[in-house]
Amino acid sequence: MKKHKIIQILLLIIALSPSILMAQAVEKNSLSLNLKYFNDNNITHHLLVQAKSKIDGKFQTIPNITIQFYIGTEADKRNLLGKRVTNDRGEAIIEIPPTAKDAWLKSPNQNFLVVSTATKQFEAGQGDLAITKAKLKIDTAEGKMITAKMVALVDTIWKPIAAVDVIVGVKRLGGILNANETQTFPTDSATGGVIAEFKRDSIPGDQNGNITIIATVADNDKYGNLSSEMQVPWGKKSLYMTNFDHRTLFARRGHSPIWLELLAYTIVIAVWSIIIFLLFQIKKIKKLGFE
Amino acid sequence: MENLAENKIVLDLLPQKFGKQGQIWVVCLLAICAVGFYAYCRQLYYGLEVTALRDYASWGIYISNFVFFVAISLVGSLITAVLRLTDVHWSTPLTRIAEIIAVSAISFAGLIIIVDMGRPDRFYNLFTHGRLQSPIIWDVIVITTYLFISLLLLYFPLLPDLKIMIAFKDKNGKWLQKLYEFLGSFWKNKPEQFKITDKAINILSITIIPVAFAIHTVTSWLFATTYRPGWDSTNFGAYFISGAFLVGAGGVLIAMYVFRTHYKLEKYITDDHFDKMGKVVVLLALVYLYFNINEFLVPAFKMKKSEEEHLMGLFTGEFSPIFWFAISASMLIPILILVFKKGRKPKWSFFAGILVVVGSWFKRFLIVTPTLLHPFLPMHDVPKNYTTYIPTWEEWAIAGGSLAGALLVITFFARIFPIIPIHETIIETESHEKA
Amino acid sequence: MKTNENSRREFLATTLFAGAALAGCGGNPFTPDEVADVKPSGEMVKLLSVDGEIIEVDKAFLKPVPEMPSVPNSEARVGIPGKKFAMVIDLSRCKSVKKCQSACNHMHHIHPGQNWIKVYPMQESEKTAPYWQPTTCMHCDEPPCVKVCPVDATFKRKDGIVLIDSDRCVGCRFCMAACPYSSRVFNWEEPQIAKEIADKPYSCETSIPQKKGTVGKCDFCPDMVRQGGLPHCVSACPNGVFFFGDILEDSVTNGAETFRFSDLIKDKSGYRLMEDLGTKPSVYYLPPVNRNFPFENNEGEKK
Fold first, then answer.
1. What pLDDT is stored for residue C63 in this prediction?
2. Higher per-residue confidence, B202 vs C56
3. What is the pLDDT of residues C179-213, one digit of tens each?
4. Does B303 touch chain C (CB under 8 A)?
């Protein structure tokens, strides 16, 4: 175990030494790590970090940065959730792993920390986040009403939370289509609930007319991002039509229109049978010549 | 007496070794080809970057050269097929000239289209993944077909001549003798054999006409199936074919003159041939002029916004010098020369032929480039050099190399085979004398 | 409980979030929609739930979807089933910031100087109003470029996207001549991209890496859509000019705002470019009325 650590430290020194040397030569850019917490449907939850840096006066997202995620306030090995590398958009995501169970259950308030070590181009970065455990729950009520209830953990009791802005709508590709003209609904002080009338009549659903309704809280200072979905049969049954397999001029190989194939093949066969006929005539002449 | 004439014809028309002039000519052509080949190697290595082609002018002189080759190749069908079927006999000495122009031009049309491809290494995709919906595939099919038919049309009338040449064993080199024997040792001048070749030539003459129309119509569709101003025309097929016949006939005028003076064939390619061919060129130029008027007057009368920029660019704008040069060189001046009897003398005809061919080459350039430089949405968000098209030396070298290559094929053909059909000439003279 | 009993049974049957269901968590996170789209990978991961339970979840159902390898060519040629993508470009919001362009160029490693997205200063005639018009590939429903491609290198998918297979393209450039929107660009030379990207296998859905001697164009970023994201231009635009969505869902979004597609087109008189050509584009434009910005063309000064 001890040996391991020594090797690790040695490796770290070796790994860092060129970058330390480089640091003197090149001015490095500082790296800001923006951390967000997401509660997905009160089941799984994840952290998202975006690495950004101001280069030439412009903020840019930075890919290929290795991020260490920690639960708690210290970058201690015991708190490590995992490591991820930022993608092309400078983002890295980690689902909360089972190893964090004890730390997670300890308190209603949680802290997260992300750290990146210095690289050739960037200084070491750090970002943290404090959240209070909360849940958002979507449901429906009589007369095509969508309800959602926001609760947060206070000591050991889930209590309704007032004045949190909730977006209620239909889940669509890349966004949420509001249930009606209202953009956001603040939660009620007594129940922590919101109620929204569903006015998106005849919105297309799946083949059975099902749509997914969703309630979300976005970028709340205290609770982070929460979302809750459920499926309701309020949509119009959709009929998926495609001309993908039709014979058209813009279809793929082997799917050209019948008239074109007939025309083309008739001409080609006619002309080439003449050519082949004539080649046989040459053979015939040859035979005559050698007789 | 008759025998003597026949012998003389044979001796006159046998292929001859290159003289000094011929050698210089061949060396020059080879040098141009070599430069073109070097330029193409550069293009293969660096990519189409070495050309002046860019996102707007994405087709350039390679494609106009391609259209030119396809156009000139149509002459094979005109001289051999159309005139043969209409029972015109004066054109007999010209048939082989026309056919070899057709074969070499269509072969180089195929080559130049490969040169234009960004990924020539994937040429086989056209066969393994070909889509019948694409006019390019139609073009590939139709050009291959035309090449085969033209080769057959070259080969069948050659058979009796091969027998004549095989007889001159000591005059031919070892290699040529082998080639002649390989191609025609089986020809014994049997009546049954003549019966078959006569039938075959007739079938070919009929078949080649629709195929020739198809190659150039399909080539015109490469443009006419798009929406672009200047290309979006229902007139395009006929416009291209009439232009093709004209440039082909012009090419024959040049070839007639060159072969006549160089091989001293005044008895076989007579002033009368120039006179008749000159008249044909006048007729074809008038037809092409008619289609040009159709092609430009009608849209110019309406002046649709999308067409306006393109048309004004041709009439008075940046392309106007080339445009008016092409119109006058390929049509107006040749008509003015050839319409007079004196103008149909060999020298003037030769000059008119050169004008027609050169003018037609630039005409093809005008069909391709100005349209691409006048897109529907204005040219924007591209580097400055994307908005113009001035071909680079590599493009000129490759285009020039391909033209030289085509001439080289014709030259070597004339070295190996009689450029004027010996057997047919003998038959013609005999029937003439009988009459 | 208003939840439909059937779907609940379906939910249990698929054993998605099996652990969570056992833990007795309420609500129904499952949408049959997505089951149609996403096939379970069979690879389960153990996670900690919000309630502190340890659950097993199929990797494919994680939200957001973890980055997956590009789909194979055969699948990329068919497209995402059950979708039909469309874009709406609101001309009244565009002031030619060109963030769309730079994001697109950056993410697709486009050759310097070339652009898949062009922002045109438009003015129909002398007395009509000038405006900025960003153009992407129109992803036409009857694409003239696909009609003319000799080798199936560019193709129309079930989801409406027109893509290019740069491993197939022979570089004949007929598609460029056929496209009336000038949306195609050509890799005239070896693309100037980092080696690690150039060495990647080409994917039709990411259009990366571009290859010498082949055609490139806007691809509607289907790789992003598969991950539940939006095309790069849509998320990059600071003014929310670009809206993207599934026309079968009748909705488009620019990330911040989501509209019902049919309402948006109806209320703002949306139109498509060059409708008379019959190409049936998938990109709709909202006219430049009630503009957020005055038209200022400083492009001449910059150069």
1. 61
2. B202
3. 999 999 999 999 988 888 888 899 999 998 999 99
4. no
Mean pLDDT value of segment B90-119: 92
Domains and CATH numbers, chain C: 5-61 (no CATH), 73-286 (3.30.70.20)
Of C115, C120, C174, the CB nearest to B377: C120
Per-residue pLDDT reduced to its tens digit, A29-78: 888 899 999 998 888 889 999 999 888 877 888 888 899 999 988 888 88
Ranges of CATH 2.60.40.1930 domains, chain A: 2-132
The two beta strands, A32-40 and A224-232, are parallel
A and C: number of Cβ contacts within 8 A? 166
Which CATH number is B259's domain given?
1.20.1630
Count of positions (residues) in chain B: 435
User: Does B130 contact A at CB distance below 8 Å?
Assistant: yes
Q: Which residue has the tokens 């013609």?
A: B428
Task: Give the count of domains, chain B.
Answer: 1
Return the CATH architecture of domain A134-232.
Sandwich (2.60)
Coil, strand or helix at C56: strand
C293: closest CA among C73, C132, C103, C156? C132
Round to whole Å and give the CA distance between B130 and B126: 5
Chain A CA closest to residue B208: A271
C143 touches chain A (CB under 8 A): yes
Q: In the CATH scheme, what is the homologous superfamily, with its name and number, of domain A2-132? A: Macroglobulin (MG2) domain (2.60.40.1930)
> Which residue in the set C29, C49, C144 is minimally distant from A229, CB to CB?
C29
